[in-house]
From TrEMBL:
Pfam families tied to this protein: FG-GAP, FG-GAP_3
Keywords recorded for this protein, A-Z: Signal
Highest taxon in the source lineage: Bacteria
Tagged with keyword tRNA processing: no
Tagged with keyword Signal: yes
PANTHER family: SENSOR KINASE-RELATED
Protein name per UniProt: VCBS repeat-containing protein
Length: 795
C-alpha cells in the first residue's frame, strides 16, 4: 500500500456532485464515520438515502460500495436535523486491529409486547461486503433501541454500547427512562451487560413541540480491553422558558464490573448543560480523557455562554480545563455567539490530544433550536501546556450555513476532516424551515494507489433460502378528492366535498340548519357508480342517525338510526370489511360512551356485528379506521380510545366476514408512550405502496404529532415500524385530525390534517411524496372555507 504525501494547503471537497440527490447523503455515525485503518486505508461510512455505503479513498477519489439497505432509522431524503440524527445513530464503522473492515447496523424486532435490540454485523470479505451474524442482546424494552456506538479492541475484538427506551419522554417535566448497555466479543462469544439507567435518550428534549437530543454517547477501549464510556443520563427541563440542566457522566468496567462517576455537573447548581455533547478517548499511555461542550444558561433556559472543556482522569479524580470559550469568526448579527459544539477527541501519532469541534452563531437564538446553528470545523491541539486553535473549514452567515458532526482521522501525520454541511431556509422568526445537506472533506489524501486486496474468506450462504411470502392482494384505492365538516360552534354543521382539482363538488347540511353540534363523516362508494358517497354521523348530543348522500349529485340516498335513543355521538369509517367491492360502514362510540364498535352493511345499513374494542368501562369510547392491513382483500378495523392510554387494537376483517367472529389481527401496541392519556385520532392508508395499509395516528390533544406505522411490518412480526414520526406544525395544543385520501386523483395516498377543537378553518395537505420522505415540511396549507373560522373534521 502506498500513500501520496498531502499538500500543505488544506483543501475542501464537497460531495453533492458525486452522490445524488442532494440531501440524501449523511454520516453513518456521529464521531467515527471517518477512519483510517491500521494499514492506512482512509474510509468513510455514509447513508445514501436508505443505503449504507462504505467509501474508501483510492487514487485520489472515493470508491463507493453498498453494504446493505435499511429502513428502520433512515429516510430516502433527509430534511431536518432530527432525521439526520436518527440515521447517524444507527450504524458504525469499525476497523479491527488486523485491518478488517466491519459495519454494525442497529435494528429492532417486535415480539408482540416489547422490542428486542438486534445488531446486524457485516464484514468486508474477498467476496465483498457480507452479513456475518445477527447479534441478539437479551435486553428488551417497550420503545426499543435508538443509539449504537462501537469501537475496536485488542486482538481483533469489537465492543459496542447501545441505548434503549422503556418509558418515553412525554413532556417538559417527564424525560422518560432508558438503559445504557454494553456488549463485547473479546471472550469469543458475545457477552452483554447493563451499564446505567438513563432518561429516554431518543427524544429527551421536549419544548413547544420541538424535539432535539444532541447528547452524544462515546466509547473508547484501552489496551487491556477495558471499556470507557461518556454519556448523559438525563436532560431536565421544567417547562418552556425555565430551568434546563444536564450532567456529564463516565462509566468503565476497568475494575471488573461497571461503575459510574460524575465528570461535570452544572456549576453552582446551574442552570447549565454539562453533558450536551462529549467524546472520550484513551491515549497511547493509558490516559483517559473527555472533551465536552458546556453551556451556561439564564434562569429562563436561554443560553448565556459556552465553553469547550477537556477533562482528564487521574487517581480516580477528574480535572477540567477550558480549551476555548469564543467562536472563531462564525457569528450572527445580534444574537449570542458560542463555541465547543459536537467535540470529537482523539490522540495523534505524537500522543497529543486533539479536539475537533464547531462554533455556533445566530441571532434571536431560541431555546428549542439552541443547537441548530453549529457552523464550521475547528481543531484544538494541546502542545505542552497550551492549546493551539485553528479553523480548517470556515463558514459565514450562520442563519443559512451550518455544519454538523465535525470529525477528523489521523494516520502517519496525515490529518483529514469531515462534516455535514447544511444549507438552511428559515422562517420569519429565523427558525429552520428546511435544509439541504452535503458531505464535505478537508485535507483528503491521494489514498491507496489501488483498491486493497481483501483476503478474509467469504461467508457461506445457507443451502436453501426460505420461500418468499405470498404477494398481498392489491389495495383498494382510498377515496378520490377530499372533504371537510364543521365541528360544533356557531355555524350550522355542514359538510363540504371537494374534487381533486380543489373545486367544490357539493355541500350538505345533514342534520338541518339548527343543528350546530358538529358532524363527522366518511367517504366510500356505496351505490357502485364509481364515485365515493358521503356518510355522515352526528357528534354527541343528537340522535345517532346515519345519513348517506350521493357522491355524484349530493342528493340524500339512505338514512338509518341503528341504535334508537343513543345520543352519545359516533366516529365513522368505511371499507370492505365483509368482502371486496362492497363497502361497509364502521361506527365507534364517542368519548362519553362505552368503547363499542359496530359494523353496518353498506347497502341496507343493517348491523352486521357489534363488539367492545376495549374492556367495558374503558373510558374514551372508540376511534375507528378501516383498511386492509394484511393484504388479504378484507378491510380490517383499527381502533384506539378517545382518551386514556394510546392503545391500538386491530381486528381481522376476514374473520368477521367468514363467521369466525371477533379476532385480533396483530398484537396490541401503544402508538405513544402509555403515560400520554389524551386520546388518539386514526386513519388508515397504504402510504408506501407496498400493498399493506399503514396505520396513521395523531394526538387528540397536545402538539400535532403524527406517527405512521407500517402495516407490512406489523403483520410480518416486525412490530410497530415507523414510516413517519413527526410534528406537523407548532403553535397549537389541540392535537391533529387526520384522513388518508387520494387528494390529487393520481392513485396515491395523501394525508389531510387539521387542528382539533376551535381553530382557524385551515387544513394541511401532505402529498404522498412528502409522506414517503417523512418530510412534514413538504406540505400545503389550504383555506377551504374562506371567512369561516371553526374547527374542522377532515376526510
Amino acid at each position: 500500500m502506498h500513500c501520496r504525501a498531502p499538500s500543505p494547503a488544506l483543501q475542501a471537497e464537497r460531495l453533492e456532485d458525486r452522490l445524488t440527490p442532494a440531501g440524501s447523503v449523511v454520516p453513518a455515525g456521529q464521531f467515527n464515520y471517518l477512519q483510517y485503518s491500521p494499514t492506512g486505508e482512509l474510509a468513510e461510512l455514509v447513508w445514501n438515502g436508505n443505503a449504507l455505503v462504505f467509501q474508501d479513498r483510492v487514487a485520489g477519489a472515493w470508491q463507493d460500495t453498498t453494504v446493505t439497505t435499511a429502513a428502520t432509522f433512515t429516510r430516502s431524503q433527509y430534511g431536518s436535523a432530527a432525521q439526520v440524527e436518527d440515521a447517524a445513530r444507527a450504524a458504525q464503522l469499525v476497523f479491527t486491529s488486523d485491518g478488517t473492515a466491519h459495519v454494525l447496523l442497529l435494528e429492532k424486532q417486535w415480539n408482540g409486547s416489547l422490542y428486542a435490540t438486534r445488531i446486524e454485523h457485516f464484514e468486508r470479505t474477498s467476496a465483498g461486503w457480507q452479513k456475518v451474524e445477527t447479534i441478539a442482546p437479551p435486553m428488551q424494552s417497550l420503545w426499543g433501541p435508538n443509539t449504537l456506538v462501537a469501537a475496536a479492541g485488542p486482538n481483533g475484538s469489537i465492543s459496542f454500547v447501545f441505548t434503549e427506551t422503556s418509558v418515553a419522554a412525554t413532556g417538559v417535566s417527564n424525560f422518560g427512562t432508558g438503559t445504557l448497555n454494553y456488549a463485547t466479543n473479546a471472550g469469543g462469544a458475545w457477552s452483554f451487560a447493563a451499564i446505567a439507567t438513563t432518561a429516554d435518550l431518543n427524544q429527551d428534549v421536549w419544548e413547544s413541540g420541538a424535539r432535539w437530543a444532541p447528547r452524544f454517547i462515546s466509547l473508547a477501549v484501552d489496551a487491556a480491553n477495558h471499556a470507557h464510556v461518556a454519556y448523559t443520563p438525563e436532560f431536565y427541563i421544567a417547562g418552556a422558558f425555565s430551568t434546563i440542566d444536564s450532567t456529564l457522566m463516565y462509566a468503565t468496567n476497568s475494575g471488573g464490573s461497571w461503575a459510574t462517576q460524575v465528570v461535570q455537573a452544572p456549576i453552582n447548581g446551574g442552570p447549565a448543560d454539562a453533558g450536551l455533547g462529549a467524546s472520550i478517548a484513551v491515549s497511547p499511555t493509558g490516559q483517559v480523557a473527555i472533551a465536552s461542550y458546556y453551556v451556561q444558561r439564564y434562569a429562563t433556559g436561554s443560553p448565556e455562554g459556552s465553553e469547550l472543556l477537556y477533562h482528564t482522569l487521574a487517581n480516580g479524580t477528574w480535572t477540567s480545563a477550558v480549551v476555548a470559550n469564543g467562536p472563531g469568526g462564525y457569528v450572527g448579527a445580534d444574537g449570542p455567539h458560542y463555541t465547543g459544539f459536537a467535540p470529537q477527541l482523539f490522540f495523534d501519532a505524537q500522543g497529543r490530544p486533539n479536539i475537533v469541534f464547531s462554533d455556533e452563531g445566530a441571532q434571536h437564538l431560541t431555546v428549542s433550536h439552541a443547537n441548530e446553528f453549529s457552523g464550521q470545523i475547528r481543531v484544538a491541539t494541546l502542545a505542552g501546556s497550551a492549546w493551539s486553535l485553528r479553523t480548517v473549514f470556515p463558514q459565514t452567515d450562520p442563519i443559512h450555513n451550518q455544519l454538523y458532526y465535525p470529525v477528523a482521522a489521523e494516520y502517519g501525520g496525515q490529518l483529514t476532516f469531515a462534516g455535514l454541511v447544511a444549507t438552511t431556509t428559515v422562517d420569519s422568526n429565523l427558525d429552520p424551515v428546511s435544509a439541504s445537506y452535503a458531505m464535505t472533506n478537508v485535507n483528503l489524501p491521494y489514498g491507496l494507489a489501488a483498491a486493497p486486496v481483501v483476503t478474509t474468506p467469504p461467508v457461506v450462504p445457507p443451502a436453501v433460502p426460505p420461500p418468499p411470502p405470498a404477494a398481498p392482494v392489491a389495495q383498494a384505492a382510498v377515496p378520490t378528492g377530499w372533504a371537510v365538516a364543521l365541528d360544533s360552534g356557531p355555524y350550522a354543521s355542514q359538510v363540504f366535498v371537494f374534487r381533486p382539482d380543489g373545486s367544490l363538488a357539493f355541500s350538505v347540511t345533514p342534520y338541518g340548519p339548527s343543528y350546530t353540534g358538529g358532524v363527522r363523516f366518511a367517504l366510500a362508494d356505496l351505490n357502485g357508480d364509481g364515485v365515493p358517497d358521503l356518510i355522515t354521523v352526528p357528534a354527541a348530543g343528537a340522535e345517532g342517525v346515519i345519513r348517506v348522500f350521493d357522491g355524484a349529485t349530493g342528493a340524500p340516498i339512505a338514512s338509518a338510526d341503528p341504535f334508537p335513543g343513543y345520543t352519545g355521538g359516533f366516529f365513522v369509517a368505511a371499507g370492505d370489511v365483509y368482502g371486496p367491492g362492497h363497502p361497509d360502514i364502521v361506527l365507534g362510540t364517542d368519548q362519553i360512551a362505552l368503547p363499542v364498535v359496530a359494523v353496518l352493511d353498506g347497502h341496507g345499513l343493517n348491523v352486521l356485528a357489534a363488539f367492545f374494542a376495549f374492556p367495558a368501562g374503558t373510558p374514551g369510547g372508540a376511534r375507528v379506521a378501516v383498511g386492509d392491513i394484511n393484504g388479504d382483500g378484507y378491510a380490517d378495523i383499527v381502533t384506539a380510545p378517545g382518551n386514556g392510554v394510546p392503545l391500538i387494537s386491530t381486528f381481522d376483517g376476514r374473520a368477521l366476514a367468514t363467521g369466525l367472529g371477533v379476532q385480533k389481527l396483530i398484537p396490541d401496541y401503544f402508538l405513544y408512550p402509555p403515560q400520554y392519556l389524551l386520546g388518539v385520532n386514526l386513519t388508515v392508508g397504504d402510504i408506501n405502496g407496498d400493498g399493506y395499509a399503514d396505520i396513521i395516528g395523531g394526538t387528540a390533544t397536545g402538539p400535532a404529532y403524527v406517527r405512521v406505522v407500517s402495516g407490512q411490518a406489523l403483520v410480518t412480526g416486525q412490530g410497530p415500524t415507523d414510516l413517519m414520526d413527526e410534528f406537523l406544525w407548532s403553535g397549537t395544543n389541540s392535537g391533529v385530525r387526520l384522513a388518508a385520501v387520494d387528494a390529487h386523483g393520481n392513485g396515491q395516498v395523501d394525508l389531510i390534517a387539521a387542528p382539533g377543537g376551535p381553530a382557524s378553518g385551515y387544513v394541511e395537505l401532505l402529498d404522498n411524496s412528502a409522506l414517503r420522505a417523512n418530510n412534514p415540511l413538504g406540505i400545503a396549507w389550504l383555506d377551504p372555507l374562506p371567512g369561516i373560522t371553526a374547527g374542522l373534521y377532515v376526510g
